[in-house]
Amino acid sequence: MGDQQFISLAKREIVKAFNERKGSLHPALKESELYVVWLAKALQNNKALLSTSRSGDGLYFEVTNNGDKGELYIDVYKKQENICIKY
Q: How far apart, in whole angstroms, are the C-alpha atoms of residue 82 and residue 74?
């Protein structure tokens, strides 16, 4: 799977999964609110980290494509804290 095809699939599936689980506390997520932070491909597998442009939600998504099995895995994380360490 090419990069653009993977990114499109990842965004579509993130939006679908998020909106099915969001409950009434969060507005629906749109693909246009997602952006790619990091992307890699190794053999037939892809991995990407995506985040939202929504201020203050702190969500990011790790999406992995298992090309051998034709499966996509989505892990959802929420930023807890940002610690500055001066050196």
A: 23
Range of the domain at 7: 3-22+30-78
Cα-based distances in Å from 33 to 42, 43, 76, 82, 86 = 27, 29, 15, 22, 32
**pLDDT, tens only, 39-49:** 999 888 999 99
**3-class state of residue 38 by DSSP:** strand
71 vs 52: CA distance, rounded Å = 23
The overall pTM is greater than 0.85 = yes
Domains: count for the chain: 1
